[in-house]
Structures are given as C-alpha cells and as structure tokens.
Design brief:
Helix content: 55-70%
Bound molecules: adenosine-5'-diphosphate, magnesium ion
Number of strands: 9
Distance between the termini: 59 Å
Number of domains: 3
Shape: elongated
Number of helices: 12
Order of helices and strands: HHEEHHHHHHEHEEHEEHHEE
Largest sheet: 5 strands, mixed
Strand content: 5-15%
Length: 413
C-alpha cells in the first residue's frame, strides 16, 4: 500500500513537469510562470487528497515539494498564490493539525523565498543540492514541532519520521534533476538555433556583400572615367559627382552592416583588443558628447588572441552606439568600458545607464531585424553576436528597465 501511494504521489509531482514539456515550451516566459504555478497548485491538491496513511494515525503527504520548488525558483510573488490555495484546501479538509499546517506554511512562505534570488543564480548541481536540503530541513522541522504536540513520541514515531525525511529528499532530488535537465536542454537548443541563425545570415551576408561590392566598384570606375571626359558639361559633372558620393555611401553600408561575413585574412591580427576598444571609443566620443554621455574606461588586459580587427571594431561600435542611444532618451548618463583578464579569458564589460530592457526584450536581442527604434536596422546586435561567436566568446546581458544595461563578454584565449 505504502509503495503504491508513493508511486501515485510521484506521478502527481511528475504531472507539471511533463505538462510543461509537452504544452508550454514555446510560450512566453510570463505565461509559463503562471501555468506552472497553476499546475503546481493542482499537484498540491492531489497530494493532499492522497496522503500516506500510516498505522499509528500518522498522516503525511508530499505537498511541500511543489511548494518549496516554486518558492525557490519563483520567489515570493509566485509562491503566494500557492500558499493561499494550500491553506484554503487545508481548512476545507479541516481536522486535527490544521492550525499547525497553517503556521508551518506561513513560516515556509516567508523563509524560503528569501534566498530564491541567490538560488536561481547557482549552478545546476548546486540548485539540486540546495532544493533537496531545503526540503529535508523543512520536513525535519515540521516533524520536530509535531513531536512536541504529540503525547506519545516513541521509537516508532522516529522511524516513520526518518522514512518521511528520506522520501522528501529522494523525491525532491529526482524532480529537481528532471527540471534542471529540461532547463539545460532548452538552453542548449536555444544556443544551437542562435548559431544556426548566425551561420545562415553570415553565409548570406558574405555572398550578398561580395556580389554587391563588385558592381559598385565597376560602376564607380566608369563614373570616374566619365567625370574626366572633356565634353562633359558643368551640370553633368555635378550629377556624376553626386552619384559617386552615393555609391561610396552604399559601399560603406555594405562594409559596415554586412561585415558578418567570414573573417578576411588580411584583417586578422594577434593582439589584446585594448587597441580596438580605445580606437572605437575615440570614434564614438563626439557622438557621446552630443548626447551628454560621459565615457569611463579602464583597460587592463595583456592576453592576446587572433581576430578580425575590422569586425571587432564594428562590434564595439555597435555596442557603444546602442548604449548611447539608450541613454539619449533619458537625457544623458554614463557609458563605462572595461577590459581585464581573468583565468586566461579576456573579459569586456560595456555598461550604460539608459532605458534598459525587459526579460522579453533581452531574449529577442540578436535576432535579425529586431529593433525598437524608428530608424533602427536590427542588425547591430546580430553582428555583435556573430562576431563574438566567431572568436568562441560568450555574451551575458544584464538589464533592468529604467536602470541600464550591461554586456559582459567573455573571450577565451
Ligand atoms: P538597432 O540599434 O538598429 O535598433 P540593434 O540590433 O543594435 O538594432 O539593437 C536591437 C534592439 O535592442 C534595439 O532596438 C534596442 O531596443 C535593444 N537594445 C540594444 N542595446 C541596448 C541597450 N544598451 N539598452 C537598451 N536597449 C538596447
Ligand atoms: Mg544598434
């Protein structure tokens, strides 16, 4: 009987995990969070409905496992609805221990979310360990308080308590392993898709920019010849010169925005990136001054790396430009540029105090043509991701709406 109840309860706990995998993977983050809280609530109710009933009148169930997991991942905001549902159900069921259960749930709801912020930043393995530990501590504490309110606390009680603790630990651990596996699968698929996208774009850009550059060169060559002709009138000469200027602009657009193309061998350098950061900072300085943006910088890196100098410069310019544009709307701010070394990695941080982004916006960064600006191309960040991808680096974005954005780039050497 006990074993069957355990299996049944385990099935209840699996239910949100499986439902998430099948139905919600491709929805928005906010929708997913709500759906998961709802599913956890269902699980909790099912757990309460089918508790473990032991001979000596000892009843316990696994309802606190979804509660703890939601509290750890979602924090106070998401566990509160669960807390309400849990207590409504418990009061509805009534009976002995209702008050204790209420008090216990309240303590948990206040304590567990306190380290939720730190919890979500931990590594996968640590999260599994922490969740299991929390679960053990919680149920341990619960049993401990229970032992005071009971008249007969004999060895039988403690053996049952031990069983309860191991069940909680085991089940939490297994569920956490499943959750972490889903998270890591989603992440790696995301990364794969992004790198696929970049490959397609850079292939396309390479051929397009090549195909366009040739006719541009030929046209501008003939126009220059025409310009030297003796029979050409003054007005015609002006037309030709205007055409040449426009051609030059087209060429510039091609080389600026379509430089996702494969690294060109004559641009390859072996250096420490500080020079490029410094050079591009000087280029962008007038633009920053116009928009009342102060530029802070510190360059401390001696590690070297092979890279395409033009692309890296373009990449930094795109990041600086976005940062300044984000601060333009708030009437100025500070752009900070840092480069340093850490365990054979080149670390670059570019931060602004601009408008910032929501989580949703961050997740769309780097997708082609994603832009929130009127005259934006939505190609800048794509180029940034593509370039950093090419030097096997990674980009971490931290942003808060209204506060600012920080790009942390890690490039292994
Ligand atoms: P564009 O600058 O042409 O709009 P990008 O690819 O450079 O295209 O940027 C895409 C979008 O990402 C921008 O429109 C903006 O909404 C957002 N973004 C990029 N960098 C920042 C930043 N530092 N602060 C706030 N939003 C940013
Ligand atoms: Mg841009």
């Amino acid at each position: 009987m006990l074993f069957e109840t355990l299996l049944l309860n385990f099935l209840f706990l699996l239910f949100p995990v499986v439902a998430f995998l099948i139905f919600f993977e491709n929805r928005t983050v906010a929708f997913n969070q709500k759906a998961l809280v709802l599913l956890s609530a269902v699980t909790m109710i099912l757990c309460i409905a089918k508790p473990f009933k032991l001979e000596i009148g000892f009843i316990f169930d696994l309802r606190y496992i979804p509660f703890i997991i939601v509290a750890l991942f979602g924090g106070f905001k998401h566990v509160f609805p669960l807390y309400v549902i849990l207590n409504v159900c418990r009061f509805y069921v009534g009976g002995e221990g209702t008050m204790q259960s209420f008090l216990f749930a309240t303590i948990m709801m206040i304590l567990v979310p306190l380290y939720s912020r730190r919890f979500v930043k931990l590594s996968s393995k640590r999260r599994i360990a922490w969740a299991t530990l929390t679960s053990v501590l919680a149920i341990g504490f619960y049993l401990f308080t229970l032992s005071f309110s009971r008249m007969t606390v004999d060895w039988q009680f403690w053996i049952l308590a031990l069983n309860a603790v191991t069940t909680y630990a085991g089940v939490t651990c297994v569920i956490m392993i499943l959750i972490e596996k889903i998270i890591s699968n989603t992440k790696s698929r995301e990364r794969l898709m992004q790198s696929d996208r970049l490959n397609v774009v850079s292939e396309l850009a390479a051929s397009v920019s090549h195909e366009i550059r040739n006719p541009l060169t030929v046209t501008s060559g003939f126009l220059q010849l025409l310009n030297k002709s003796r029979t050409i009138t003054q007005v015609e000469k002006e037309y030709v010169e205007l055409s040449l200027l426009e051609l030059k602009r087209a060429e510039k657009i091609v080389s600026d925005y379509l430089s996702f193309a494969k690294p060109q061998s004559d641009n390859m350098v072996y250096s420490n990136m500080s020079e490029e950061l410094e050079y591009t900072k000087n280029i962008i300085l007038p633009y920053a001054t116009i928009h009342e943006v102060e530029v802070n910088y510190s360059f401390n890196n001696t590690l070297n790396k092979h890279y395409d100098q033009n692309q890296i410069q373009q990449c930094f310019i795109n990041l600086y430009k976005n940062a300044i544009e984000a601060m333009k709307e708030t009437g100025g701010g500070t752009l900070s540029i840092e480069i340093w070394e850490k365990k054979r990695n080149i670390m670059i941080r570019i931060g602004d105090t601009g408008i910032g982004m929501t989580k949703e916006e961050i997740s769309r960064l780097g997708k082609p043509y994603y832009s929130t600006k009127e005259e934006g191309t939505g190609l800048g960040m794509l180029m940034v991701y593509s370039t950093i991808n090419k030097v096997r680096g990674s980009i971490e974005v931290k942003s808060e709406k209204g506060k600012g954005t920080t790009f942390l780039i890690t490039i292994p050497t």
